[in-house]
């Protein structure tokens, strides 16, 4: 049996019931200003941002890219040899009657 997908409406009902259960067990909800939870001592927490290290110099690899491009162009310039399929040819006698079939390439 296929399990039905949960809709947004079902998820909202479930969250609402969990909040109601929390409040019934003497839980309290503290109201905070918008954006306040992301601040530490009134400033944004920058310890998790990845810009703490200095900028590193990149190694130029232009010669490697040029070699790869050259290999690509070599592959496309080689002619493709297509083998012709053999054909069936009729051999006729002096009177125009077919004698036999011969395969020609």
Using the alpha-carbon principal axes, give the shape: elongated
What is the N-to-C order of secondary-structure elements (H for helix, E for strand)?
HEEHEE
Number of helices in the DSSP assignment? 2
Structural class: alpha+beta
Question: Span between N and C termini?
Answer: 62 Å
CA gyration radius, whole angstroms = 39 Å
Identify the strand order in the major beta sheet. Answer: 1-2
Question: Which spans of ≥5 residues are poorly predicted at pLDDT below 50?
Answer: none
Helical content band:
25-40%
For the secondary structure, the number of strands is 4
Main sheet record? 2 strands, antiparallel
What do these coordinates show?
Residues 6-39 form the Transcriptional regulator SutA RNAP-binding domain. This is Transcriptional regulator SutA RNAP-binding domain-containing protein. It comes from Marinomonas vulgaris. It holds the Pfam family SutA-RBD. The protein has 105 residues and is α+β, with helices and mostly antiparallel strands. It is 31% helix and 16% strand. It is built from two helices and four strands; from the N terminus they run αββαββ. The strands form two sheets. The chain has a two-stranded antiparallel ribbon. A two-stranded antiparallel sheet has the order 3-4. A hairpin with a 2-residue loop joins strand 1 (39-40) and strand 2 (43-44). The longest helix has 17 residues, at 8-24. It is elongated. The two termini are 62 Å apart. The model has no long low-confidence stretch (mean pLDDT 83).
């Amino acid at each position: 049996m296929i399990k039905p997908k949960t809709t947004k409406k079902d998820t909202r009902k479930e969250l609402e019931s969990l909040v109601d259960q929390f409040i019934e067990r003497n839980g309290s909800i503290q109201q905070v200003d918008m954006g306040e939870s992301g601040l530490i001592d009134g400033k944004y927490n920058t310890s998790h941002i990845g810009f703490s290290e200095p900028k590193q110099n990149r190694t130029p690899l232009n010669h490697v890219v040029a070699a790869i491009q050259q290999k690509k162009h070599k592959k496309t310039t080689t002619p493709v040899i297509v083998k012709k399929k053999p054909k069936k040819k009729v051999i006729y006698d002096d009177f125009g009657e077919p004698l036999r079939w011969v395969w020609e390439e």
